[in-house]
Amino acid sequence: MVATADLSDLNSLEELFENADGVIHLGGIPDEADFHDLAEVNIVGTYHVLEAARRAGVPRVVYASSNRLTGMYSAGDPVSSDMPPRPDGFYGVSKVAGEALCRLYADKFGISTIAVRIGSYEHRPGSAREQRTWLSPSDAVRAFLATMTTAEHVAVFYAVSANTGRWWDLKAGDAVGFIPEDDAARWGAAEDYDPNLPQGGIYASKEYSIDKMSL
């Protein structure tokens, strides 16, 4: 069955979620945009998903978060999911808010929430940055299968392939059963990436955010 619902329509989401074993929330604006749009779709929309799940008695919500939530850390800094957020733009800020909502619904309402900080989902890495952040399609499937089968009640982890030069720790993923098998190194020798640059790359530039603002 295929059903269509709008993230702005809480009642429709509640009806859609009836008798569901879990919800994988992939909806939203997937890149930098005007903050007002990001707030309405990514933050309020995520609240609607979680609240609809609570009302419908759904036991688990899996949230598609993003590596851009920590994109201002330097490339020379290994990052784990328990470190403070350092978003590289307003999109990243919306993901910080989404993860906070997930934690609230887990702590206050007892819903199991698993936040997946997705890397660069591509068929193959296309840049020096993506050699560190690449998430292969096969490893993406492994990540989301783990989210729906893990015994963990609350978790946040990076969905990234086992890239030789990756920036993000895999221990949190291992705890939920995510064991990546692919490595960007299979596609060629690693290119240099200045360790002083932000992990977000171009996404961390001022222009990338300002150009998306509605002035």
From TrEMBL:
This is NAD-dependent epimerase/dehydratase family protein. PROSITE patterns: ADH_SHORT (PS00061). Residues 4-119 form the NAD-dependent epimerase/dehydratase domain. GO terms for molecular function: oxidoreductase activity. It holds the Pfam family Epimerase. Keywords: NAD, Oxidoreductase. Belongs to the NAD(P)-dependent epimerase/dehydratase family.
